[in-house]
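Obj.: predict assembly geometry.
Materials: sequence records (below).
Method: joint structure prediction, all chains together.
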Amino acid sequence: MKRLPVRKSKGISYAKWGYIFIAPFFITYAIFVLYPQMLTIYNSFFENYRSGLKQVGPNFVGLENYVKLFTPDKNGTIDILKYAGNTVILWVGGAIPQITIALLLAIFFTSYRLKIRGQQFFKTVIYMPNLIMASAFSMLFYTLFSPVGPINALLTDWGMIDATLDFFSQKITVRGMIMLMNFLLWFGNTTILLMAGIMGIDQNMFEAAQIDGANSVQVFFRVTLPLLMPILVYTIITALIGGLQMFDVPQVLTNGGGTPNRTSMTLIMFLNNYLKTSKNYGMAGAISVIIFIITGILSLIVYRSLTKQDN
Amino acid sequence: MTHTNSSDSRKARMMLQASRAVVYAILIFLSFLCLFSFYMLIVNSTRSNADLQGGFRLAFSDQFFVNLYNAWTDASIDIPRGMLNSFIIAASSAVLSTYFSALTAYGIHAYNFKLKKAAFTFIMAIMVIPNQVYAVGFYQMCVRLGWTNSYIPLILPGIAAPVVFFYMKQYMESVLPMEIVDAARVDGSGEFYTFNRIILPMLKPALAVQLIFSFVQSWNNYFLPALLLDKAEMKTVPIMIAQLRSADYSKFDMGKVYMFILLAILPVMIVYFCLSKFIIKGVTAGSVKG
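Observations (raw structure tokens):
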């Protein structure tokens, strides 16, 4: 009892420990993220690349890199828009089934009426691809779908095709494979997140709705979906940010080419080409800044959805 | 009245049975989709190259150890070295991420200071910004410091891991009573001692989950390592897998190729199948509050 006032007055001096404990995080962040981020933005205003053995720049060019990025080439295509379009198509093709199926599964698993058995088994199986190395998964798809691979052999055995099918020369099959892989990599994770969300909803809400005579479709649209909205928004936006970073799967599947005819080239593959192949820091910087602005806006929405839940 | 009631309930029961059957069919189909490619991977890793050229088969063969030996001793793709590099990087960065995220979270959770709220808001705001957007500057910095072909730039940034921090913070809010900290102080325990000896043991389940997730993330990481590592003896597993893709494919022993892929994912798969229940629980425990 006597100690109480002593402890209270001491409480103020503990503040410095807060700073000491969080210092490593912020120092590391400043060195490995903040400074590189500034350097990236700075670079985007300079002409700085290698042409053969010759180094060009760095020369200050203002917004020229950005202008170049949005100038149509001789065929009239604007590369960055083309690749942004590819990224969006590939993302949508994977994310729509991912979120729809995950939502369905989350409802199945949490339904008291259905009482699904073997949940642990199903959850273990569908979550598994999420931990798989995306580049290895992509390489596996490449071997399985290659002209001499087992899928072609299987289709021939079944008499479904006469000649070897080259999955990698068609826009639709390459994109389809990338979408399928992204779906498989992520739907289990989304299912588990949404399940937690549904289980977090007050059970009385469901009971009340049932007593009032609502059927399961009504319960879903009137109770589950509105209450799940914050988590659903969080899931969609984080999936969108993940989609913007799409790289490993298409990069390995198409060996960096975004074949056929660059229809599976994503924004990050575009960035990677400037950075790795041509060491063009100026253009790579400008692309980075654009992606940064988009993710910045998206993460603001995530931040909002996360802090709203705290209330 | 009673008659219609019982037929109604029979109808309802039949509806339930039917919808259950549909649900199981969907679940089995999705499980098949998830497992098929891995099943093919394992089967094909047991078959010889000649056998693989012969076509599709679902049955295991007996060339597993031959393929393993060939892959393990391959001259151009040094997979044991790659796995060692990946392991060193993934294990070190996972330990750093987990320890320092817990430390940061504890700093914000347990102490009151002027910038507490600002620090928390800042970490939350940067949480989902991907590392690709500052890769240009990161790469230039590493070149200037002589950090290409080095473990350092792939390990040290682990100290600042906002997602792990957030998980730890959430976990602390649910399990960590401040009375314990007060009691430790009364007993004369220093602040660092309290954190290392009293708080950390209380966080064991969260630390284990985050060690696993951080390890897996780093083990699978391709973009930054591919940018920074080009010396053969420094390459990590994902870089070697991509190298496999760019090699002249027709000359490859396919049994060996499947074995390389299997080796790349095997360590994570073993951990997963031992701890799947724990890992799946960990996906949500701290991430999003319901």
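Conclusions so far: The mean pLDDT of chain B is 90.
To do: check interface contacts against the pulldown list.
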